[in-house]
Specification:
By secondary structure, this protein is of the alpha/beta class. It has eleven helices and 20 strands. It has helices at about 15-30, 45-55, 65-85, 120-125, 155-165, 195-205, 215-220, 275-285, 315-330, 355-365, 390-400; strands at about 5-10, 35-40, 90-95, 100-105, 115, 130-135, 135-140, 145, 170-175, 195, 225-230, 240, 255-260, 260-270, 290-295, 305-310, 335-340, 340-345, 375-380, 380-385. The strands form four sheets. The chain has an eight-stranded mixed beta sheet with strand order 3-6-2-1-9-11-12-10, sandwiched between helices. A hairpin with a 4-residue loop joins strand 7 (about 135-140) and strand 8. About 45% of the residues are buried. The protein binds aspartic acid (ASP) and magnesium ion. The site of aspartic acid has 13 residues, from helix 5.
């Protein structure tokens, strides 16, 4: 008897009809005699709406209360999914993250899973139930409700699959798998049969929005092979696993556009030792994720530089607050925030063994009249920050240059 973990994202449970579809799919696996654990997200739009409500009350709400609020989204879906299975005469029990034994640290709104003791899950499975677990949430040792960061239901599913030593982990979403680009932006994008963890990690982290990147990191670390597939049809999806040698034959596996980043520039920062350390220590201590960092050469007679970095749009207000609080101590002149940026990236393990990839990308952008604002590279990725308004045009051009 196999243990199967199936995760259904927001659109897959976006209406009661969709929830009934999920129940039907689950029942098919159950009928084969397998033990099924279902992880669900909040119904689509629900989390966004809860965030909106909170912000109507105050711009920077308490993060503990945000978790209390956001955890309700998934809790609605687990109960409805259990009911949908009951209506088909299948025994099913819903569990919150805490009840499923998911213990996290205390970093509210982006908690990390510390350990999972799925005793209750096993017990319920062994007595014949389908177990439905609320994604995206856990509980600290002290009993505080936490959430795992946006898209965190993916992490719940992967981590549970690891803890349960599941035989199969399926991530059901509203797309057929991982594509060479977002098919909504690039009509010629193709579905990949398989992709390596590292490529997927870059693609997810770069706004290819298929999955939360922390969940892919977790899968890589614990060797959880999983499939990303659609809940709307029966097409096979994309298998995500450790890199194999034949994967290097392709230079660029995918092109991603991240529209969720913002750029912060600190103007006129004193050019002396310890300044960057002071700035990014303060940022880091507030659990703000920084992605690209660029420092200009010293300018003016006073020896000052400009430091720019990118961060999630959602963290921009918090970053501002932190930077405001250290401005006089550090002595920079101004904080300039720009939300109208896009980060465009190409990803492929084949870049390790091919040259001229960056030049081709920059040339393609130049021909499309797209200005490059920041550049960063790694072994398997090249990213550029560009004007958000040119984002979609740029993705199409770069995809057609490398993938066709
Ligand atoms: N409901 C949460 C979100 O929208 C978690 C998830 O969907 O995975 O971010
Ligand atoms: Mg989601």
């Amino acid at each position: 008897m196999a243990i199967i973990v199936q995760k259904f994202g927001g659109t897959s449970v976006g209406s009661t009809d969709r929830i009934k579809n999920v129940a039907t799919r689950v029942s098919r696996y159950r009928a084969k005699g397998d033990q099924v654990v279902v992880v669900v997200s909040a119904m689509s739009g629900v989390t966004d709406n809860l965030i909106k409500l909170a912000k109507e009350i105050m711009p920077l709400p308490s993060e503990r209360e945000m978790d209390m609020l956001l955890a309700t989204g998934e809790q609605t879906t687990i109960a409805l999914t259990a009911m949908a299975l009951h209506s088909m005469n299948l025994p099913a029990v819903s569990l919150t993250g805490a009840q499923a034994g998911i213990v996290t640290d205390g970093v509210h709104t982006k908690a990390k899973i510390q350990n999972i003791t799925p005793k209750e899950v096993h017990k319920l499975l062994d007595s014949g139930n389908v177990v439905i677990v609320a994604g995206f949430q856990g509980q600290t040792q002290e009993g505080q409700i936490t959430t795992l960061g946006r898209g965190g239901s993916d992490l719940t599913a992967i981590a549970l699959a690891a803890a349960l030593k599941a035989d199969l982990c399926q991530i059901y979403t509203d797309v057929d798998g991982v594509y060479t680009a977002d098919p909504r932006l690039v009509p010629s994008a193709r579905k990949l049969t398989e992709v390596s963890y590292d490529e997927m990690l870059e693609l997810a982290g770069l706004g290819a929005k298929v999955m939360q990147s922390r969940s892919v990191e977790f899968a890589k670390k614990f060797g959880v092979i999983f499939e990303v597939r659609s809940s709307l049809n029966d097409n096979p999806g994309t298998i995500v696993k450790e890199e194999t040698t034949n994967m290097e034959g392709v230079v660029v596996r995918g092109v991603a556009l991240d529209k969720n980043q913002a750029k912060v520039t600190l103007a006129h920062v004193p050019d002396k030792p310890g300044v960057a350390a002071r700035i990014f220590k303060a940022i880091g201590e507030s659990a703000i994720n920084v992605d690209m960092i660029v420092q200009t050469a010293s300018h003016g007679t006073s020896g000052a530089t400009d430091i720019s970095f990118t961060t999630d749009k959602a963290d921009l207000l918090k970053a501002r607050k932190v930077l405001d609080s250290i401005q006089s101590e550090v002595g920079f002149k101004e904080i300039i925030a720009d939300e109208k940026i896009g980060k465009l990236s190409i990803v492929g393990v084949g870049m390790r063994s091919h040259t001229g990839v960056a030049a081709k990308m920059f040339e393609t952008l130049a021909e499309a009249g797209v200005n490059i604002d920041m550049i960063s590279t790694s072994e398997i990725k090249i990213s550029v920050v560009i004007d958000l308004a040119k984002g979609e045009q740029a993705v199409k051009a770069v995809h057609s240059a490398f993938i066709g």
